[in-house]
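> example.struct
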């Protein structure tokens, strides 16, 4: 596999001419001349190439020897059992068992697949994979960053493109499988930034220039003459710009035997991770001088490259158990064919190491070609991986607590005693059945009998005999009825040990399995162990990996389109009043938690627990909302409910959440108005009660007063109508009088005929 260095221009880089520049490096105990420029005085020791290679070679041999003794044999048996094959040292591979039944019942594989199903149901049943919280909830910037990081990771996990996508579910399930089969899983988190250059011809109109660089002017118009110019322009396309989770085979991770069992990666004094790499990729990285990488790769001669060919001889048994017969024709056993070889080692797989070691309380990093040559200068880890603030970019997880053991025993290996008993009983039963169907032939010694014809036993076989007693058949009894019962008992023992619930367990416990409550008891007891393992896996691998992904996003993310989309999804403006995504916002401190609860292995049980929790907490929540002390996240609850019944984004599909109206009355003002209305209602109720207590006289007087007032109003209205009518008649009379007078005063015009 190739090493993908980070070429993001935002990441700080080292100047190889000033730090660790090969032959210009000071000797041991000397300070570089420009140490003050880098703040290195009295802090960073210098290493010679010979010392580094010697130290790393010894560290690798020490870690590999301990790994071979403590874990590799267990890994071989576990890998073979998961793939339903007998491990290489099994007796079924011996000549004595060549003609015997050698079936392998896939109980281990089925149990691992059930743990993967529980992991998938627990982690990826909802659209939101994680929950992010601000370290300081009173800080709106931290709260906004928590919402942003959640939406960014959800966007990455849901994106299937090569440029931005993060196959989180596939990687997580693969890590869960490795933890079940080998007891541990290891991954590296880093940012991958890759670009591809292409050239295009662009045409544009420019002012014509003279030899001395002045524009040629048209004297008639006073404007410069224009000419069409065609030039080749380099265009850089971003191919990948995303965080990466790279699963590392556990045998490639070499840890110091004295490392702490709780956190072996960060506590190991020396850590070596083998990255088998094609020589073509290594040569390409050596020729890359664009300066975008935080480390400078040195050139290595062909002679040194020839001494560092990757070999799997010490791990051949493990690879055979994992890959079967294909391991004998591995790509590392012969040179791959290439076109246009750059060297005689082009196409060969080389043994490239990524190394970490601690010296004087400071962690250092470099790449080497096995223990033969240094590929990059020894550099402090915080300068190579600045996003992690000095932490190594690797995480090891497990699903079992095994104190003071560096390589814990895997689940599959712990099941092997029960698995072997099931296989042995099954194969003995099959052998007995075969003997019952095909009886044993008894051939008299010294007779000229065609033994191949006796062995063939097909429908057309023919045996030549001289006496009836020359060939006889002895039919052995078939398998006893107890063999089936023994298999059922062994299957139940295996299911209990593995913590799985199967149909065989119900069939073997008829009285308990015939009731619904009994089925629930069997399922609950089986799921409890599965949930314990899942919670340990989440604690040791999932949450640390997600935390490193968040750190990578905070440090490297600069895609304006992605940030705008995620900012809109997180509603940072509506909820927190932040209108622009800045570096200060992305770098705010957040804590990461995975959305997993009790009952994760059974979605129906989880939904019932969710309903029960709301039934119990509902009255308290209502009281808190009434006092304005609590607020319910309706969208989160709807997403969770639909996800538990199988609709990952059901709330978004079936329910439309309306945006808040800007002209709506604030909640405090509404509560104030409601209080005033309530007071008015109380006053009216009190008045009504007073009227009902015997104030009839007062009521009658009021009614009489009202009647008198009504009569007065009617009289006044009648008088007003009468006065209006009189005034209208008087006005009409005046108008008619005026009209008559105008007619009398008008002159008489002569008529013309």
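> example.seq
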């Amino acid at each position: 596999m190739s090493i993908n260095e980070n070429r993001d221009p935002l990441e700080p880089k080292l100047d190889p001419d000033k730090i660790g520049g090969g032959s210009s490096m000071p000797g041991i105990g000397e300070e570089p001349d420009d140490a003050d420029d880098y703040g290195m005085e009295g802090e960073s020791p210098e290493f010679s190439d010979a010392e580094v290679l010697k130290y790393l070679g010894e560290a690798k041999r020490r870690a590999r020897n301990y790994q071979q003794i403590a874990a590799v044999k267990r890994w071989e048996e576990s890998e073979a059992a998961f793939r339903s094959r007998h491990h290489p040292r099994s007796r079924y591979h011996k000549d004595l068992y060549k003609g015997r039944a050698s079936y392998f019942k896939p109980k281990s594989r089925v149990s691992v697949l059930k743990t993967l199903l529980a992991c998938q149901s627990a982690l990826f049943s909802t659209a939101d994979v994680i929950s992010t919280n601000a370290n300081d909830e009173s800080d709106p910037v931290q709260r906004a960053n928590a919402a942003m990081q959640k939406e960014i990771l959800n966007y990455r996990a849901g994106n299937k493109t090569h440029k931005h996508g993060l196959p989180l579910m596939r990687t997580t399930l693969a890590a869960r499988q490795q933890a079940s089969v080998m007891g541990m899983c290891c991954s590296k988190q880093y940012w991958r930034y890759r670009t591809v250059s292409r050239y295009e011809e662009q045409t544009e109109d420019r002012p014509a220039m003279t030899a001395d660089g002045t524009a040629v002017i048209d004297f008639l118009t006073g404007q410069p003459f224009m000419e069409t110019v065609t030039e080749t322009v380099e265009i850089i396309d971003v191919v990948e710009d995303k965080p990466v989770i790279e699963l590392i085979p556990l045998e490639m991770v070499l840890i110091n035997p004295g490392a702490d069992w709780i956190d072996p990666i960060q506590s190991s004094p020396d850590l070596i991770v083998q990255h088998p790499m094609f020589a073509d990729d290594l040569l390409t990285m050596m020729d890359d001088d664009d300066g975008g990488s935080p480390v400078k790769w040195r050139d290595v001669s062909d002679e040194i490259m020839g001494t560092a060919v990757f070999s799997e001889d010490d791990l051949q048994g493990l690879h055979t158990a994992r890959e079967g017969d294909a391991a004998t024709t591995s790509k590392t056993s012969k040179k791959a064919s290439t076109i246009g070889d750059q060297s005689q080692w082009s196409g060969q797989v080389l043994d490239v190491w990524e190394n970490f070691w601690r010296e004087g309380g400071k962690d250092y990093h470099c790449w080497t070609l096995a223990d033969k040559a240094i590929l990059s200068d020894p550099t402090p880890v915080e300068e190579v991986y600045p996003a992690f603030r000095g932490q190594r970019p690797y995480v090891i997880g497990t699903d079992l607590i095994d104190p003071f053991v560096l390589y814990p025993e895997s689940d599959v290996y712990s099941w092997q005693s029960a698995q072997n008993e099931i296989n042995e009983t099954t194969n003995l039963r099959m052998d007995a059945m075969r003997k019952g169907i095909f009886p044993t032939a008894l051939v008299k010694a010294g007779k000229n009998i065609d033994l191949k014809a006796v062995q063939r036993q097909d429908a057309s076989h023919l045996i030549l005999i001289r006496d009836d007693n020359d060939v006889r058949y002895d039919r052995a009894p078939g398998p006893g009825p107890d063999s089936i019962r023994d298999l059922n008992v062994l299957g139940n023992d295996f299911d209990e040990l593995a913590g799985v619930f199967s149909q065989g367990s119900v069939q073997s416990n008829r009285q308990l399995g015939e009731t619904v409550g009994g089925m629930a008891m069997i399922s609950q007891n089986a799921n409890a162990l599965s949930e314990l393992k899942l919670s340990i896996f989440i604690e040791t691998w999932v949450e640390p990996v997600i935390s490193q992904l968040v750190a990578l996003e905070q440090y490297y993310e600069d895609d304006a389109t992605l940030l705008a989309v995620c900012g809109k999804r997180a509603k940072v403006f509506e909820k927190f009043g932040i209108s622009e995504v800045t570096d200060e916002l992305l770098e705010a401190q957040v804590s990461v938690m995975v959305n997993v609860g009790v009952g994760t292995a059974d979605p129906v049980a989880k939904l019932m627990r969710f309903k029960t929790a709301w039934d119990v907490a509902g009255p308290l929540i209502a009281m808190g909302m009434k006092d304005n002390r609590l607020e319910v996240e309706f969208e989160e609850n709807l997403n969770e409910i639909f996800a538990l019944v199988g609709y990952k984004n059901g709330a978004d599909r079936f329910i439309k959440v309306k945006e808040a109206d800007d002209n709506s009355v604030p909640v405090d003002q509404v509560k104030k108005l409601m209080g005033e209305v309530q007071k008015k209602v109380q006053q009216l109720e009190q008045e009504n009660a007073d009227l009902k207590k015997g104030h009839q006289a007062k009521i009658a007087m009021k009614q009489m007063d009202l009647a008198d007032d009504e009569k007065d109003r009617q009289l006044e209205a009648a008088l007003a109508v009468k006065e209006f009518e009189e005034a209208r008649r008087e006005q009409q009379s005046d108008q008619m009088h005026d009209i008559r007078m105008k007619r009398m005063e008008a002159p008489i015009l002569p008529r013309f005929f």
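> remarks
Residues 602-664 form one domain.
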